[in-house]
Design goal:
Strand order of the largest sheet of chain B: 12-11-10-9-17-16-15-14-13
Mean pLDDT of chain B: 89
Strand content of chain A: 35-45%
Helix content of chain B: 25-40%
Radius of gyration of chain B: 25 Å
Distance between the termini of chain A: 50 Å
Number of domains of chain B: 2
Oligomer: heterodimer
Shape of chain B: elongated
Structural class of chain A: mainly beta
Largest sheet of chain B: 9 strands, antiparallel
Order of helices and strands of chain A: HHEEEEEEEEEEEEEEEEEEEEE
Largest sheet of chain A: 6 strands, mixed
Number of helices of chain A: 2
Structural class of chain B: alpha+beta
Number of strands of chain A: 21
Low-confidence stretches of chain B: none
Distance between the termini of chain B: 71 Å
Low-confidence stretches of chain A: 35-49
Mean pLDDT of chain A: 87
Shape of chain A: globular
Strand content of chain B: 35-45%
Helix content of chain A: under 10%
Radius of gyration of chain A: 24 Å
Number of strands of chain B: 17
């Protein structure tokens, strides 16, 4: 008994000593932005108590009270994003507005960015902008992505580093035809340039850039039969159709390409079975690899649902 | 139960107490970053360390018998640990000075941490009495004396001197008088005449007047700052002059109260040395 007690005590003192070391080297906890007393008693003071973050992560958001508020500490403190909520759902949108449109925003330690639209003088035509902050919501900037687009449907924003980012938009849909276009920024979101328009009017399903030169657009959402991917290797100046060498047994099985991933000296992409696939339950995907930066793709293996990240 | 047995139990309880505190401390270390919380007073960390080690040591040497060598080594290690913690405690308080005050009913802790290097002070909202989160930056730095005075169990007035020897008041409020129904403006809700034998307060839609010994001072709404939903500060020449807080028995105007506020308000003349607090009762609307 004596030995156990002494051993325990020694262990605890050791742990406390390590604790002191950690305590002395800890990061300071995040301080709220300066405010004067009268501002803090405005609605910001009492409403956040009732806000619930939409996800379990520390960095999250809520659309309660018809406004967009973000948090960096799991809902303890809230920062209001100065955008009208409905502007986040401009264009062709059929949801109920309780969650932001997937991929239409970025919310990380380093950047918070939201695609939104403003009405213009013309009916059905919107100006598309990005509201972003690099200092956890203390200051916000707006970058104009497109001056005039009609009926924006697909919207995606992402940044690969502090300066380079891309936005994929589609719109003007009639039946199963629409235009799609990619915009790039090289100054962290302040200014945006349209890339060349890809030579297709099918409905876009996926779009992404893996580095500043190489980007992919994947088409066919309703009843795709073969993967339809356009690739740029010159930062969006031109788009070429990518070639998929499909083994005969997978023809009309793997039909829709998702966003490619970059590996050391090759790229991979998962091809899914589209909305109507029924091969082995419909959830199995095909992994393809490319060694020429996305122009031609070879089948590599089947990926079971439980290995898909 | 004989005396020895009780003593033995007490010794073991001391040992368990040390283990309990140890887990509090470890829990704090593991969770503070995730929950973004700090102890209400940064010194608490070192005080807990010392307390744990002392309790452990005392419990162990009382529970078991040891050779003389163990006592020498044990005592010197414990002293070393204590000296280290006292040293770190004083050093840490030089960097971040803690100002802490506990409410009269022991349920709330008013906590301000002043960063000596940045020359700024942050008000911390306390949770569960021992941890806290930064809530607000004080509008101006603390340059001289200060004092914390609890007007009620949930309103603490922090009076301090700032640049130019001006006195300022910052109020920590904990809760409201309306069961969280909605935000309201204290100045508007106390509309009417409030008085006791010495002093009276008149709140009208245009201004608030404080009448003391026949002297009337008038405060426009832009000289009035609200904190939480419990208190306002009246300012004169950029200095805090009075604090008005809602009394414990204050009731918002409603049909039940005959469409006028009921209960009392508390008036406090801002001053580091001032301990006097006036309670004023509602008299009439005009």
């Amino acid at each position: 008994m004596k030995r156990i007690a002494v051993f325990l005590a020694t262990l605890m003192i050791l742990a406390l000593s390590i604790g002191i070391y950690l305590y002395e080297n800890q990061n300071p906890i995040y301080y709220p932005k300066p405010t004067n007393p009268i501002e803090t008693v405005e609605p910001a003071e009492q409403e956040p108590e009732s806000f619930e973050p939409l996800t379990d992560e520390a960095i999250s958001y809520t659309l309660q009270n018809d406004e967009l508020n973000i948090t960096y500490n799991g809902g303890a403190d809230w920062i209001n994003v100065p955008i009208d909520k409905e502007l986040l759902f401009h264009g062709e949108y059929h949801g109920n507005g309780t969650e932001l449109i997937e991929d239409s925003y970025i919310l990380t330690e380093n950047i918070a960015a939201f695609i939104y639209g403003e009405e213009t003088n013309q009916e059905y035509v919107e100006k598309v902008l990005l509201k972003y902050s690099y200092d956890r919501g203390e200051t916000w900037q707006d970058g104009v992505i497109a001056e005039a687009l009609s009926g924006v449907r697909f919207r995606k924003v992402d940044f690969l580093n502090e300066s380079f980012g891309y936005v994929v938009l589609s719109g003007g849909r009639t039946m199963s035809q629409e235009f799609s276009i990619v915009y790039l920024t090289h100054d962290g979101g302040a200014t945006w340039e349209a890339t060349a328009e890809p030579p297709t009017t099918r409905l876009i399903a996926f779009g992404s850039f893996i580095d500043e030169q190489t980007g992919f657009l994947s088409y066919g959402t309703i009843n795709p039969e073969i993967p339809d991917v356009f690739v740029t290797q010159d930062g969006g100046k031109s788009w070429k159709q990518a070639q998929f060498n499909m083994p005969p047994e997978y023809v009309r099985v793997f039909v829709q390409a998702e966003d490619p991933e970059k590996h050391e000296d090759y790229l991979t992409v998962l091809l899914n079975q589209g909305p109507n696939g029924d091969y082995e339950g419909g959830k199995v995907k095909g992994e393809f690899r490319s060694e020429d930066n996305g122009l031609t793709w070879e089948f590599f293996r089947e990926v079971q649902p439980d290995e898909q990240g | 139960m004989n005396r020895d047995k009780i003593l033995l139990i007490l010794k073991w309880l001391l040992f368990l107490f040390a283990i309990g505190l140890f887990f509090v401390q470890m829990g704090y270390l593991l969770l503070q970053d995730r929950l973004q919380m700090e102890y209400v007073d940064n010194r608490l960390f070192y005080i807990l360390n010392i307390l744990i080690v002392v309790c452990l040591y005392v419990a162990i040497i009382m529970l078991f018998s040891f050779k003389r060598n163990f006592h020498i080594i044990g005592a010197s290690l414990v002293s070393l640990f204590i000296i280290l913690n006292v040293f770190l405690l004083t050093e840490s308080n030089k960097e971040i000075k803690n100002i802490v005050s506990i409410s009269p009913n022991l349920t709330h802790v008013f906590s301000i941490k002043e960063d000596q290097q940045l020359d700024e002070a942050l008000y911390y909202r306390s949770y569960y009495r021992i941890v806290s989160r930064p809530k607000e930056r004080l509008p101006s730095p603390i340059t001289g004396d200060y004092d914390v005075r609890w007007l009620t169990n949930d309103v603490a007035v922090f009076t301090y001197e700032t640049t130019g020897d001006k006195k300022q008041a910052f109020i920590g409020t904990y809760g409201d008088r309306n069961e969280g129904v909605a935000y309201y403006y204290v100045g508007a809700e106390i509309q009417g005449v409030w008085e006791n034998e010495d002093v009276s307060v008149v709140s009208s839609p245009d201004e608030i007047q404080v009448i003391e010994n026949g002297n009337t001072t008038v405060y426009d709404w832009d000289q009035i700052h609200q904190f939480g939903t419990l208190a306002i500060v009246l300012e004169k020449e950029q200095e805090a002059d009075w604090v008005i807080a809602l009394g414990k028995d204050f009731k918002l105007r409603s049909v039940e109260t005959g469409n006028s506020p009921a209960g009392s308000i508390i008036l406090y003349k801002v001053g580091i040395e001032n301990k006097e607090v006036d309670t004023l009762n509602y008299k009439s609307l005009q």
